[in-house]
Hints:
Blueprint: H1 3-8, H2 17-27, H3 31-36, E1 44-47, E2 58-63, E3 69-77, E4 80-88, H4 91-100
Antiparallel strand pairs: 1-2, 2-3, 3-4
Amino acid sequence: MTLRKLLKEVRGFDWDQGNTDKNFREHGVFAKEGEEVFFNEPSILFEDEKHSKKEKRYGIFGITSQKRKLTIIFTIRNKQIRIISARNMSQKERRSNEQKT
Length: 101
């Protein structure tokens, strides 16, 4: 199953208050901004194999409605997207993302 198909089967977002607070405090990313990345194009989905020890994790490089370039790390729980981390793309991620889109 492709990641795009996987995302079509989800029913929304499940936010943990601790992650919501951490993403804003450490990275200045609001929950709504993180969600926007899943609906805006272009975006690149990938499996986060390095951090998929206890549960399968994924990542997405994308943009918010305000054109902010973000990296989102997430998992799928009970058919909902649970965002683990939302932050600005690093320079390396930006270069890689620009080459692929």
